[in-house]
Sequence to fold (968 residues):
Amino acid sequence: MTDLAEQTAAPQRASALQRFFDGDIWYSFTRSRVTMVAAAITALFFVAALFAPLVAPTNPYDLAALNLLDAFTAPAWTEGGSAKHLLGTDEQGRDMLSAIIFGARVSLTVGFASILFSMVLGITLGLIAGYTGGLVDAFIMRVADVQLSFPAILIALLVDGVVRGVLPPSMHNDMAIWVLIFSIGISNWVQFARTVRGSCMVERNKEYVQAARIIGIHPGLIMLRHVLPNVMGPVLVIATIGLAIAVLLEATLSFLGVGMPPTRPSLGTLVNSGQNFLASGEWWIAVFPGLALALLVLSVNLLGDWLRDALNPKLR
Amino acid sequence: MGRPNLPLLEVKHLCIEFPTRRGTLVAVDDVSFHIDPGEVLGVVGESGAGKSLTGNAIIGLLEPPGRVAGGEILLDGKRIDNLPYEQMQRIRGKDIGAIFQDPLTSLNPLYSISRQLVETIQTHTDMTARQARARALELLQAVGIPAADERLDSYPHEFSGGMRQRVVIALALAANPRLIIADEPTTALDVSIQAQIIALLKKLCHEFGTAVMLVTHDMGVIAEAADRVAVMYAGRLAEIGPVADVIHHARHPYSHGLMGAIPTIGSGTARLTQIDGAMPRLTEIPSGCAFNPRCPKAFDRCLAERPVLRAAGPNEVACWLY
Amino acid sequence: MIAFVLRRLLQAVVVMLVVALIAFLMFKFVGDPVAQMVGQETTIAEREALRERLGLNDPIIAQFARYVADVAQADFGLSFRTSQPVDTMLAERLPATLELAIVAALYALVVGIPMGVYTGLYPNTALSRLFQAISLAGISLPTFFVGILLILLFGVVLGWLPTFGRGETVQVGWWSTGLLTVSGLKSLILPAFTLGMFQLTLIMRLVRSEMLEVLRTDYIKFARARGLTNRSVHFGHALKNTLVPVITITGLQLGSIIAFAIITEAVFQWPGMGLLFLQAIQFVDIPVMSTYLILISFFFVVINLIVDLLYYAVDPRLRIDRTAISSAAG
Fold:
């Protein structure tokens, strides 16, 4: 059995980057219908969010376009629905579909920005820890361990609370998006750092690093060139699953009332506002943004799962 | 003469396949041999020659997606390769024992040696817990664990590699099987311990009358322990015969080359021979004889037609030279 | 054994000190406690006097030492918002959160482990695929949205279960419990299900992947080769080895249940510590925030300690390679 594995694994000794574009990945993608559907849904969300002003039926921020008479219109296919508002309207007569598209735009913006922040922070700290070793490494990884044992939501909430405390109250709403990006980003860097550090530790003892030292090239530089391509695959997987986590975290913070303000709602904020109308029967105000959020997170998670399996030949 | 009418184990035209998306790999291709009661059959070949897969197929533990695609495996003349899992389970351990390569990972780290022995004994016999424990102690003493009564309740991590392999042998012998599949039993051990383990295995099997299929790539182990030798190459049987004949008068050019690679004490300045090239991947097995690209004596027929196993002296050889 | 426990205890103390330092720094640098405590018309001199009296002009080290001493005696100061002692505020809320968390944790364990074992043993059956689909939904559905859907279905549409609050509670000493009244139990169902759902998913996925991993090991193959029954191989050998990492991760997960309770408490207006913490964040009520942090950390540290001891009990080799395991489960 192991003999056979060696035989089939041998030709794949290319870098992770090359392997990513190798036929196997594409093959496993076309083989999995679920993954293809997930990719399509994700793409749909991305496009809708990117071109929200063009795609959405109305502009939910345009107060002049709101008509209170339209308030609480039910979804188009139910009793009391109107063809004008496919998914109904909220208490101010805002079109829910438009609100969701713009909400997804906010959610994805925060998601991408914070995962980028986590990635840069994590990779940098991981490289420093893995390259320097010793006390610096021990310190960074201890912090990572401790942070990892606390749930991200708690860390994000605390950071959010502290930053709010530092900022004057008048700036809270305007700065909300930056506070969110910072607090979510800082709660998710550990996985990146661990992966990069692990790869660094492996590379550090290899002969080419010693050889580089002998011929006078800074070994850090040459390691960078070997470590980064090696960790591309895992980093991509962590980033994809991390995006789902970040979007979920943003929605949760906004739902809890410490994220995006109602004036610039994300999907979580929309669910929060809609929650108040559950008991009175206007269920769609909370349910549709929630469904959109669940669908987005599920799709990204599916993509991440597939990517992890496809990049990990051990499981294939 | 000598050979009883019915062999203990008979493997007929065994084929093992691995379906992959790039087509089916034939990892073991039309392999036939038998093992007589009490006999030690050595199976040699390079990594990937299909020796371990053959052993796994016999105990019915081929790992998916590998599967027996053709042929028969008979124990006492009865087919066992098509038995349902539950019936095969009753044969494993009781009729056919197994020893794997790495003693460090073969034992469950969370259970004491005594527990693992007792559960094996009780699975296959009607012994009470007390009797099974006594039997476990006997077994540990038989495999040469010093102070066995004190170490009975130790955990695997408290033993050295060589000692653990002794425990593994005790486990394999627990229900007195008539055949043991020993898959590279010494490869993971220190050289100094290898000889001890082989000597022990040989001695115990002789005492208990157990037959052994000894899978290895180490010709020294074969020369030491085997009665007969089967040489495998690229999933096929190249040559099979009594140990002395295969070692000293190998017919097949591959076995000949393999034997030339054994250092012998006292041969002084004689050079070790080596076989040029490497065994082909399973996806790239040439037509005709699988060995033809590396064979110094290959001729036209070797490229075109696949040789079948035929008698050549005391040996059977798959080669067009005979 | 004693050395091991002592080392763990020491580590726990260090972690608690670090957390106390963070809490202290929050006090020190976020907001001005004096400004929070006095009215607009207080003079600068009065403020300075108050500052001196509160010890805010002492050296930082002395202030930190005093803070740690206060915390050790469960004296967490007064809330900026309500001016009540923080310890009594939290003590009132503690039973609600703990009852919710424990019920949710039990539910997650009792349902999650069998589901994980089953999907690990029989990965290709229809039921396994169903469980897998549920688990994927479980990690993708936001907790608050699960709660809202449950409220909508069981509260609004069917009207079977209460959707907010704890129902009637009974005082047992200082502990107020909702577990002894019918309305308390009914009120607990939806929040506990919501809170346990995510943990259940994680536990199931973890047990499944560990099970698959263990089933591939040599000792499982050897156990099969010895002719042991499937039952004994699966539940005797595989499951016990699976438990080693599962205990670790599950322990940490149970700790995080108390933190995740924040969301559930917000959805169901459950009067627990999480709801209090949320209000504290909105009002930048630093004493409540930092006390909550310390309390949660304390739970975590205690759970960690218990996990380590369990670990010791299960694994005779006592591999203390915790980091490798938790990173694998990531």
User: Anything to note?
Assistant: The CA atoms of residues 161 and 168 of chain C lie 14 Å apart. Chain C has a mean pLDDT of 81. Strands of chain C lie at 170-172, 175-177.
